[in-house]
Amino acid sequence: MSELVRLTEVTKVYQGGITGALNGVSVAVEKGEFAAIMGPSGSGKSTMLNLVAGLDRPSSGTVTVGGTDLGKLGEAGLARFRRDHIGFVFQFFYLLPNLTALENILIPAQLKGNVVPGRARELLEQLAIKEVADRYPALLSGGQQQRVAIARALINNPTLLLADEPTGALDTHTGDQVMELLGELHRHGQTILLVTHDAKLATRHAARVISVMDGKIVDDARLESPDRTASEVIRVRGEEVSR
Ligand SMILES: Nc1ncnc2c1ncn2[C@@H]1O[C@H](COP(=O)(O)OP(=O)(O)OP(=O)(O)O)[C@@H](O)[C@H]1O
Ligand SMILES: [Mg+2]
């Protein structure tokens, strides 16, 4: 495996903040990993994810993704980096209400000038929500909305999928299904960095758990074999794949 993300001595102090939201964090994530970031509210998890996404800049230290030092990019370069390399999934989906599911999924592709409806339909099928393509978000369940948001995050084939509490607004069963889906994407090579409060979900699906407390990494555990309860055979686009 090769390294995809590296944070070196990253500190983030927000304007008006007395203590740092992140305090000298150094960590690396390999290509193909599925890592969960856990920690109490306010410990700096979202801050970390936003810095990796290039949505915000550190006060000091460096963030490198795919060999690119994000600190060396200007605003336009950073926007291009996000568009081309990062897929981001949020707790509250943020779908545009006046666009259909399919149109929502295509937004990042449109921004890139590379509209690929075939790919969008393929993702809808892979995420088992083919039937919602032409529906508006208000008519979708939370789980369906999150799947649409995941498809939107994947449409440009991002190097890195970031998810900040993607199950936070879902009931346990639906949350578990969304996590299972992320696990499936991971088994097909997608690098995923996920923030979650839920230790059970993290250890069941992710292969590494990075614990954050007061802006510092206090534990970094690689799980030999994640405690998965799903069957050994999964279905991808109708085909059975063993893992
Ligand atoms: N834009 C901001 N301006 C000022 N302070 C901020 C900002 N965003 C976060 N903070 C502060 O930085 C610290 C870390 O916040 P962060 O959002 O990263 O925590 P978190 O671990 O994601 O918490 P939660 O689990 O509640 O989402 C907190 O003390 C928070 O109040
Ligand atoms: Mg957060």
Which properties best describe this structure?
12 strands; about 240 residues; binds adenosine-5'-triphosphate; about 30% helix; Rossmann fold; 7 helices
Would you summarize the structure shown here?
With 243 residues, this protein is of the alpha/beta class. Helices cover 32% and strands 28% of the residues.
Could you describe the 3D structure shown?
With 243 residues, the chain is α/β, with parallel strands linked by helices. It is built from seven helices and twelve strands. A six-stranded mixed β-sheet has the order 6-7-8-3-9-10, sandwiched between helices. The protein has a four-stranded antiparallel β-sheet with strand order 2-1-4-5, covered by helices on one side. The chain has a two-stranded antiparallel sheet with strand order 11-12. Strand 9 (208-213) and strand 10 (216-222) form a beta hairpin. Helix 3 runs parallel beside helix 5 and helix 5 (142-154) packs parallel to helix 6 (172-187). The two termini are 18 Å apart. Magnesium ion (MG) is lined by residues 45-46, 164.
What is the average of the pLDDT values? 90
List cofactors, ions and other ligands.
Answer: adenosine-5'-triphosphate, magnesium ion
Quaternary organization:
single chain
CATH classification, class level: Alpha Beta
Provide the structure class.
alpha/beta
DSSP summary, beta strand count = 12
CATH superfamily: P-loop containing nucleotide triphosphate hydrolases
Helix content: 25-40%
The CATH architecture category equals 3-Layer(aba) Sandwich
| Elements, N to C (H/E) | EEEHEEHEHHHEHEHEEEE
CATH topology-level name? Rossmann fold
Uncertain stretches: 229-243
- The rounded Rg comes to 18 Å
* Biggest sheet details: 6 strands, mixed
Beta content comes to 25-35%
Number of domains as seen in the coordinates: 1
Principal-axis shape: globular
Instruction: Trace the largest sheet across and list its strands.
Output: 6-7-8-3-9-10
